[in-house]
Design a protein that fits this description.
Blueprint lengths: L1 H5 L11 H6 L16 H25 L10 E11 L15 E2 L12 E2 L2 E13 L2 E2 L4 E7 L8 E9 L5 H14 L3 E7 L5 E5 L3 E6 L5 E6 L10 E2 L9 E2 L2 E3 L2 E6 L6 E3 L4 E9 H9 L2
Parallel strand pairs: 7-8
Antiparallel strand pairs: 1-4, 1-17, 2-3, 4-5, 4-6, 6-7, 9-10, 10-11, 11-15, 12-14, 13-17, 14-17, 15-16
């Protein structure tokens, strides 16, 4: 069906597009049998029926949010993220191909010596969005992990995705697809953890997200004081694979901790920020085409 919908040039034999030619019954292109000629009216009627089928198919695709070109659902997501990591403020991973070095496993020392890692917690709340006909508004989910010591080749260490229990199966399918575009990298390990209740609240001065009331994860951020009461915001900096964001609102963490699974960690006083991102399936198509 993809080949049918992609065809655009006219077919020199029948005057129909290749899309219509492929759907047209064989008898429309066959030689007359036993001298019987098909009437022009009958031929035109068959073509019109095929055109009607194409239009109906495209209408159904539009109603279901399916791309007629690829057959995949159209999607979009505008979401706000409470984010923190083990790097000093501001996370150097946005400017370098490796994270900050840490001299102690506890993660409370900064600098370039020792082991390099970026252990992060990203708490998402979808402001508005859809995946096909499924609305994503209000969905909450959490991504925790470690970028590893060197991601110059786009290879990260591990990540775990946790959904709030209110997220439906249809929403989860869409979110997992969209996350692959938000973070277009490879992971040594990417898993979906057991559901956990997630709380998410934010103002211009304070932001906090918790998994299972903090037993599985916690990020607490406070606005960094600037020259005025206005927040400090880094503009014109790309967030991973996302083409649009409202800026990185500087908010160092009081604590960022992932307390679930077999790779728990906790850091205090390190990098933190809030950001609102916006991405859709058209953006992903342009990126894939190299536009």
């Amino acid at each position: 069906m993809r080949e049918i919908l992609k065809a655009t040039s006219l077919n020199y034999k029948s005057g129909l597009s290749p899309a219509l030619s492929l759907l047209t019954p064989d008898w429309l292109d066959a030689e007359p049998l036993i001298g019987v000629q098909l009437s022009s009216q009958r031929s035109q009627g068959g073509s019109m029926r095929v055109v009607g089928l194409i239009v109906s198919f495209l209408f159904v695709c539009a109603r279901l949010g399916i791309s007629a070109e690829s057959g995949a659902p159209n999607w979009s997501m505008n979401a706000s993220i409470i984010e923190a990591c083990s790097c000093p403020m501001f996370c150097q991973c946005y400017f370098n191909d490796k994270p900050a070095g840490h001299g102690e496993h506890a993660g409370h020392s900064h600098g370039e010596g020792g082991e390099h890692f970026c252990k992060f917690n990203n708490a998402f709340k979808v402001n508005r969005g859809h995946y096909g006909s499924t609305k994503l508004d209000g969905a909450k989910f959490w991504v925790a992990g470690d970028l590893g010591g060197d991601f110059s080749k786009g290879q990260m260490d591990w990540a775990a995705l946790t959904f709030d229990s209110s997220v439906t199966p249809e929403q989860r399918e869409g979110i997992k697809t969209i996350l692959g575009q938000v973070y277009p990298v490879k992971w040594n390990s990417f898993s979906v953890a057991q559901d956990a209740k997630m709380t998410w609240q934010a103002t211009r001065d304070h932001a906090e997200a918790k998994l299972d009331d903090g037993k599985a994860g916690q990020v607490t951020l406070h606005k960094f004081a600037g020259m005025t009461d206005d927040p400090i915001v880094i503009k014109n900096l790309k967030y991973w694979g996302v083409p649009r964001n409202d800026g990185f609102l500087m908010m160092p963490n009081e604590v960022e901790a992932y307390r679930a699974g077999d790779k728990p960690f906790e850091f205090k006083g390190t990098n933190g920020f809030m950001i609102t991102i916006d991405i859709n399936s058209k953006d992903a198509s342009k990126e894939k085409a190299g536009a």
